[in-house]
Prior knowledge:
Elements: H1 4-14, H2 16-31, H3 37-45, H4 56-67, E1 74-79, H5 83-86, E2 98-103, H6 107-116, H7 130-137, H8 143-162, E3 186-189, E4 194-197, E5 207-212, H9 231-247, E6 251-256, H10 259-272, H11 274-281, E7 283-286, H12 294-305, E8 310-315, E9 333-337, H13 347-361, H14 369-385, E10 396-401, H15 403-407, H16 409-413, E11 426-428, H17 436-453
Parallel strand pairs: 5-10, 5-11, 6-8, 6-9, 7-8, 9-10
Antiparallel strand pairs: 1-2, 3-4
Helix pairs in contact: 1-4, 2-4, 7-8, 9-11, 13-14
Amino acid sequence: xxxxxxxxxxxxxxxxxxxxxxxxxxxxxxxxxxxxxxxxxxxxxxxxxxxxxxxxxxxxxxxxxxxxxxxxxxxxxxxxxxxxxxxxxxxxxxxxxxxxxxxxxxxxxxxxxxxxxxxxxxxxxxxxxxxxxxxxxxxxxxxxxxxxxxxxxxxxxxxxxxxxxxxxxxxxxxxxxxxxxxxxxxxxxxxxxxxxxxxxxxxxxxxxxxxxxxxxxxxxxxxxxxxxxxxxxxxxxxxxxxxxxxxxxxxxxxxxxxxxxxxxxxxxxxxxxxxxxxxxxxxxxxxxxxxxxxxxxxxxxxxxxxxxxxxxxxxxxxxxxxxxxxxxxxxxxxxxxxxxxxxxxxxxxxxxxxxxxxxxxxxxxxxxxxxxxxxxxxxxxxxxxxxxxxxxxxxxxxxxxxxxxxxxxxxxxxxxxxxxxxxxxxxxxxxxxxxxxxxxxxxxxxxxxxxxxx
Length: 454
């Protein structure tokens, strides 16, 4: 029987992880002192990467800390390398057997903050649906607040979905107050939870949303995993991008579902000559695989985007889809390719979905595993879209390339209301009569009007 608490106290008091980090850094510097810098960089970027800033023992310490939680709060998931992961295919790349701790109830950690603070404010652009956030942070710990979040989400969805201008909301709970409302602004106030939802800082005329169900040759744009690698779909996407590059000024960012799919597209476009055609319209840049190359890649893309124009091939959930500022000419158009659903075979995701389904079956509140899975996808899409419009005078076109954006209401409603036209913004492509030609004409007109107004 190992007393994990004693081991953790010893590691904390002795500062052994920090001491080990200092020793390994010194040993590494001595062993590489006679080599050239380039060889050291290759070693540091290789598969056997060793951080100079994080002690390997601190990772073990964190894992042991997780093991002190109850079995309801988390679970240890063992993984073994598969042929697919070794070859760099779909899913997480691994070389060695791995033990991962999956947090099934983040609310257990968040409850300490709720208990100690008088008020907690969560602010962000992708907090909706509120029921998703509440499931992560409140489920099983505060049933009243959890229910208030679910009610608030229902009210916000009803108001923003029923009319272009939001009006006052009065929840049914006693003691609830309504707040003054402006266009596309909804507030719900109760004794347990206050939520505030508002529109975007830009005027509606500064954003254009386009759903593309098919390309220039009327080939259906279906980026489900089973069909997205076909030559027909890849070629149609290339032709679509080629046409967009002719009407979109400055920078055009393409967000793809995965790095492996980006590699597949580039190889296919090289083979049929489409990449050369794109390069003659705008310079083509790719998101670097190494974080060390990110700053140089951004600098080069920024310079060319503001000059003769550039295309950036990036990945949803990658290094450039969150936290990067592509303001003004760096991103006049964002092309979202497909729907970036997480890998359903991932053991961590499977455990999380099973845990949520059990909670729903036991009537503990929250959302189902399938709803959680869908919300993860739409949150990633919304994060990527948000890279383009960064201030009140900015403008951009958002092109959603997949037939499901137009045909499936659940996906369409997962987008922000300011992007769906509910606040007066322009949308093209959701009508059955919408054609690719009409969509392209709408994009050309949008940028022509912006140029005239400026």
